[in-house]
Amino acid sequence: MSAVTSPRLGLPAQLLHDLRSPLNQIIGYSEMMTDEIDAPEGTDAEKIRSAGLHMLSIIEKNFITSEAEVALVDEAVDDDPDAAADFSARVQSTTSTGLLLVVDDDAGNRDVLSRRLVRQGHEVRTASSGPEALRMIGEEAFDLVLLDIMMPDMDGYEVLAAIKGDKRLQNIPIVMISALNEVQSVVRCLEAGAEDYLAKPFNPTLLKARIGASLEKKRGRDRESILFEQVQENYNRLQIVEKLRDDMRNMIVHDLRTPLTAVIVGVDMLELNGGLTEAQQEMVDIAASSSKTLLGMINDLLDVEKMESGATALHFTTLSANALVAGVARQLAVLAKGSETTLVTEVAADLPAFQGDESKLSRTLVNLAANAIRFTPLGVVTIVAERAGTSLRFSVRDNGRGIPAASFEKIFEKFGQLDPRSKVGTGLGLAFCKLAVEAHGGQIAVESTVGAGSTFSFTIPIER
Question: What pTM did the predictor assign?
């Protein structure tokens, strides 16, 4: 006669909870008794434990309703030492210990779990209700909380939500514990922020492994937080040091401008007074040129620093592209003649007036064209103005030696130079150009082919 398998009967959650809680205590106390007396198999304590596990298995496999819940039960009551040891080996750093809070309304359950955790090396506190647990968590820095779900007045879900809703407490790992094995309950806890879920009665190895893994995760998060705070603190210190350095540099550079201006005035007076020999005049000319070059470097540095900090205000007026380009060409005529470079201008007809800071835009074009002249001896440099949609585009084109593509970004950086050994300029000219153009709401760009020349261009919106 074949055996008949009856369908599993679902029981109310509270009844299942009430059935499993005393079994949890029977199994837990018998396990600890066996460990304390180091009893061999077959002793009374071991028989009590085996009977408790057998009774639990009967309850679970006959009175729960889903295959998923059966899987949870199998994990909870699994008494295979090899399987438990294999799980423990796959969890890293399960030997982590810490200050733990056990929250359960049943005194027997609190005692069983607390004693088991103490034997594993943890320091343990207990709370008999949700409000008491929240009070204790607010007063003491716990490394992990083991929180029972089914409690009167304030259940585990509510306590979990209160902890995760508090920014001061939300990083504490919470392991939910329950005498129920309901998939929906597990999912609900994990989605609410719980670190893990354990069903009563606890497999000692499983309990140790999961708590150890949760504590190790917390240690990792704590290390990350400390490292982030250190990085932030170092960054703040670096900002302070950089500001002090910049302030000191600006103060020194600013103070240099006053005596340098006096030198320039003195040299100019020598020329005005006349009576100089040809050799003396040559030396005066060199002194005048060098002094003005140095003053230009100082002004570049101060202007770039001011623009970077936002301390320079633009003075917008209505400008003509034709007049702007013509003025720049006049300023550079002597430089172009000295290097035997042909300077050409190409301004499109009927370009509209636009809004801009004449001083900053003129200086930008002068910097770009002067660089092109210096690096294009005996060549042709062309200054172009044309319309580009709602903007005007100004370009400086040359047929000089060109720039490698890898250097495009570097040359616009402060003190950035194509050749660090170059003795021409300070590396501030293009940085100033970029800042001035971007302050107008435009963009600056470069196109270049080594050996064939370069084109630097920037756009300025017609309307502010």
Answer: 0.45
